[in-house]
Amino acid sequence: MHDRDLTIPAVPAQNVGTLTREEYLEYDVELDQYRADMAAEAPQLSIVRAVIANLRSDQPWRDAAACRGKNPSTLVPEKGVSTRGAKEICATCVVIEPCLEYALGDPSSKGVWAGTSEKERKRLREARRRTH
User: Fold this and answer.
1) CB 60 within 8 A of CB 90
2) CA-CA 20 to 30 A from 70: which of 12, 52, 89, 106?
C-alpha cells in the first residue's frame, strides 16, 4: 500500500452551511482527489479485505497463527514487492501445515500462506495433481 493519506476530507459540521463558494470548491477538489486515490488503491484493498475475511473464518488453527494481528500489507505485498517479510513470519509459525493445506485447497488465496507465494502454491497444486 502507498503511504498516502486516504482519510476523507472533513468539513466541521458547524461550518457546513457557512462555506463560501471558494471553500466549497476547494473541498470538492479535495474530495475528488480522495476518490481518485481510493480508486487507485481499490485492487490492493480488495485483496487485503479478502485476507481479513479469511482470517475471520472458522479455521481454529488460525488463532495460533504467527501472522495473526500482523499488517495485512506484509502478508499480501503489492506486485513486485518482496515476500521476504511475510515468509519470515511464516518461518516462526507453529501451524504452518494446516495453513498450507488450507491455502492449497483455496486457489483464490492471495499473498503468502505457510511461507509460500501464490506461484509456489500453484506449482505445488500442479505437482499434487500429477502424483494423484
Assistant:
1) no
2) 106
Q: What percent of the chain has pLDDT over 70?
A: 58
Q: Which residue has the higher pLDDT, 60 or 37?
A: 60
CA 99/CA 64 separation, integer angstroms: 11
For the chain, the structural domain boundaries read: 18-131
The DSSP secondary structure of the chain, one letter per residue, reads: ------PPP---GGGGGG--HHHHHHHHHHHHHHHHHHHHHHHHHHHHHHHHHHHTSS-GGGGG-TTTTS-HHHHSPPTTS--HHHHHHHHT-S-HHHHHHHHHH-TT--S-BTTB-HHHHHHHHHHHHHH-
Mean pLDDT confidence for 26-41: 67
User: How large is the average pLDDT for residues 88-111?
Assistant: 92
12/47 Cα distance (integer angstroms) = 33
